[in-house]
């Protein structure tokens, strides 16, 4: 019997960065615009962008496009530096189709393990397809994050 993968299963990615959890947390959140691949993973698809990353529950994460336009990427739902960030995620999309991100930061002997879990695909009209895109996309995005810190 063939095993059928759940098309809405969480996307889980784990990377390790060579620094303390507090530094890794700051780089992932308020330092995001220094490493995020705006050319491929933003609403403007511009090589350079800016992101306003609200530091606290209820704060928004907002992309500011080169033309001055603003797109909400999501809202922070959990903020516990240096260990945990949770947020809704809907870059340029409607909030009612937001997925959920959970990012945990755990110190190890090699630095900090960053564990990303992306869930909630069933709320999107294109949930299965979006999940497949993000499964590949997070590899590239987290690769940029790691590369910026070594």
Describe the structure in your own words:
- By secondary structure, the chain is an alpha+beta fold.
- It has a single domain (11-149), classed as Alpha-D-Glucose-1,6-Bisphosphate, Chain A, domain 4, CATH 3.30.530.
- The protein contains two helices and seven strands, in the order βαββββββα.
- It has a seven-stranded antiparallel sheet, with helices on one face.
- A hairpin with a 3-residue loop joins strand 4 (70-80) and strand 5.
Summarize the topology:
Layout: E1 11-17, H1 21-28, E2 50-53, E3 60-64, E4 70-80, E5 84-89, E6 99-108, E7 111-119, H2 127-149
Antiparallel strand pairs: 1-7, 2-3, 3-4, 4-5, 5-6, 6-7
Q: Please report which band the strand proportion falls in: under 5%, 5-15%, 15-25%, 25-35%, 35-45% or over 45%.
A: 25-35%
Shape assignment: globular
| CATH fold category name | Alpha-D-Glucose-1,6-Bisphosphate, Chain A, domain 4
Radius of gyration: 15 Å
Tally of structural domains: 1
Number of strands: 7
Termini separation = 45 Å
- Number of helical regions: 2
CATH architecture call: 2-Layer Sandwich
- What string, H for helix and E for strand, traces the elements in order? EHEEEEEEH
The CATH class is identified as Alpha Beta
Q: State the helicity in percent bands.
A: 10-25%
Organism: Georgenia soli
InterPro entries: ASHA1/2-like_C (IPR013538), START-like_dom_sf (IPR023393)
Domain Activator of Hsp90 ATPase homologue 1/2-like C-terminal: 23-142
Protein name: Activator of Hsp90 ATPase-like protein
